[in-house]
Amino acid sequence: MKIGGRAHTAAEAEEIGRAGFPFAEISLLDAHAFHSGQLERLQAVAETYSISYLVHGPEEGDAWNPDELRRSYLPQIRLLIDCAAELGSQVFTLHFWIDKRYIPAPVIEKKIVLLQELADYALSRRVQLCLENLSEQAADLSPAFDAAAALGMTLDIGHGQLLTGTNTAYDFADRYPERIRHVHAHDNRGGNSPQDDLHLPIGQGMIDFAAILGYLKSRGFDGTITLEVTPDHLHAGSAILQRIWQEATF
User: Which of 47, 62, 205, 216 could serve as 187's disulfide partner, Cβ 3.0–4.6 Å?
Assistant: First the structure.
C-alpha cells in the first residue's frame, strides 16, 4: 500500500514531492495547458523528488446530456488520456455520475457506452481508466462494469459516507474487489448534499477508517491511496492510515 497526495497544480505536486511522498495525483484539465508548460514542470518535479503521477480528469459538465458529453467531453478526455500516458501515469480517475436515483435510465445507458469507449481507449494507451464513486450505490456501477471489461474503480471513502446510513465502501469492496485499483481518503460528518463533502483531515469526521481499510485489505486491496486533504495535513493523515494498515487483521 502506497500513500500520496492530491495536487491541483505543479506547485502542489512539488510540495508533495518535497514532503517525501511517492506519488501525487495531479488534476489534468486542459490538454493545451499541459503541452504549454505543465508537462515540463511536472517532469522536472518528478525527476527532482523521484515521484510518480496518477491523474484526475475534469468534471463532466451536464450529467444529464449524453449527446453533449459525446460531442465535447469524450474528445477532451481522450486528449487528456494521451497526456496521462505522456506523463507516465498508469491511472486516470474520472467523475461520471450514473446514480439511478437522479439520472434517468436511458441517459445512464448512453453514458455507459461512453465509459466503455473511454476505458478501451485508455487501455490502448496503457492507462487504467477508473470510475470514481460519487453518490452511487454499489449496484449502480454493475451495468458499467458488465459493459466495460477494461474499466476500473477509484473508491472514494469520503463520498461513500454521504447519502447513506452505512458507508458504501464496504459494499463496493464486497462486490467489486477486482475493480478497485485506487482509493481516495478524506473525512466528513456524513450528510445528504455536495456541501457535506468536507474533505476533512483523517480523524476529524465520523468515518471509521480502521474498519473500512481493514475490510479492503481482507478483500485483497494493496494499492495506492490518495489523501485528498490540504498539504499541511498529509503527514498526519498518512501516519494514521499507515498505522491502521499495519494493524489490520482478518
Answer: 205
Task: Say how many C-beta atoms besides its own lie within 10 A of residue 33's C-beta.
Answer: 12
CATH number at residue 212: 3.20.20.150
Among 36, 121, 106, 38, smallest CA distance to 76 is for 121
For β-strands 180-185 and 2-7, DSSP reports them as unpaired
Q: Express each pLDDT in 78-110 by its tens digit.
A: 999 999 999 999 999 999 999 999 999 999 999
| DSSP letter string, 198-231 | --BPTTSSS--HHHHHHHHHHTT--SEEEE-S-G
What total of structural domains would you count in the chain?
A: 1
Give the DSSP letter string of 99-143: -TTTS-HHHHHHHHHHHHHHHHHHHHTT-EEEEEPSS--GGGGHH
Instruction: Report helix, strand or coil for 81.
Output: helix
Position of cell 518528478? Answer: 46
Cβ(27)–Cβ(7) below 8 Å: yes
The CA distance from 245 to 214, in Å, is 7
pLDDT tens digit string along 57-83?
Answer: 999 999 999 999 999 999 999 999 999
Cα(111)–Cα(105) distance, rounded to whole angstroms? 10
Q: Which residue segment(s) compose the domain that 22 sits in?
A: 2-247
Of the chain, the percentage scoring pLDDT greater than 70 comes to 100
H or E segment to which residue 4 belongs = strand 2-7
